[in-house]
Amino acid sequence: MKKFLSVILTVFLLLALVACGGGNNEANEGADNGDEKENKESVEAKTIRAGIGLNDAHPQYKGLLKFKEIVEERTNGEILVETYHSGQLGDDRTMTEALQLGSQEVTVPSTAPLANFIPEYSVFDFPFLFPSEEVADKVLDGEVGQKFLEKLESQDLVGLAYWENGFRQVTNSERAITTAADFKGLKLRTMENEVHLEAFRALGANPTPMAFTELFTALQQGTVDGQENPYATIYLQKFFEVQKHVSNTNHIYSPFVFLMSKSFYDGLTDEQKEIVKEAALEAGKYERQLNREANTQYLQDLQKEGMTYTEISPEEHAKMKELVQPVIDKYADKIGKDIVQEVYDAIEEASK
Ligand code: TK8
């Protein structure tokens, strides 16, 4: 009998050991699962596909690399950034639509094509709106600029910062432009924005809206006589190879807007949201500085490459302003006089 009881006891003890060990296993499994899940999550970093239209020589791309550096460092690799330039992912409108669809996470378009998504953005392309880069910074980085960024949410977009495209200058291969009358009949490519189109019509030109990705070929083939962009773009995109004349029209200060897909942004932790916003702002300040530093140098380099540079006098600039004023009045009505007035008031305040 004793022997029988000791066998039963041994079997019972063995069963008890096995059960506890399993529990531990389960606990371990749980822990493993937990660790595994945690490891899995940390292994599966989020990826930002960031695309722009300008090439890798442009300050805009250097700004994108700065954004990548800051985000990857501050998130310890939880977020990785893939950068694409030269329209590899498409033109401004296509990439902005990709953000809305969630098939791309970041792009940095000019404000002009954004007006096709949020009409109020046209105000930033009113000719001669910003008198200087410094005033543009103050207004865009202040209350008014923030108000415009918030409008993007209705389009499934998050505006994180303003970067700089810069003051736009006209180039062409027909004639030197020194007067308002010299625009007459020029076939000029413009961005896909009604204000740009109508302003150049008011100057007597014959404008054609076109994506930036098609521009160099159109200039090369003579589909258009000219275009307008900041000196940095004219030089770094090698437009001097297909354009003869450049003049300091300074007709529009063009901002870039750093856009993120809302669906991607909403999926970030609060800490990650702060990091991407800080990174967009810090990289934007860096990009603006690079863009400005070399502007004078770019103009000299364009002339070294054989372009003729002509200056437009204050009197002729005044004539240009007079010719485009009816377009400004029309679009101020169209997009809302109040918000337009807010922008002009902010500019006046920032100019003091
Ligand atoms: C580049 C464009 C470009 C703009 C244009 O993606 O289209 O002429 O000035 O900088 O945004």
TrEMBL record:
Keywords: Receptor, Signal, Transport. GO terms for cellular component: outer membrane-bounded periplasmic space. GO terms for biological process: transmembrane transport. Residues 1-21 form the signal peptide. The keyword Nucleotide-binding does not apply. The keyword Lipid biosynthesis does not apply. It comes from the Bacteria. Belongs to the bacterial solute-binding protein 7 family. PANTHER family: C4-DICARBOXYLATE-BINDING PROTEIN DCTB, PTHR33376. This is Tripartite ATP-independent transporter solute receptor, DctP family. It comes from Litchfieldia salsa.
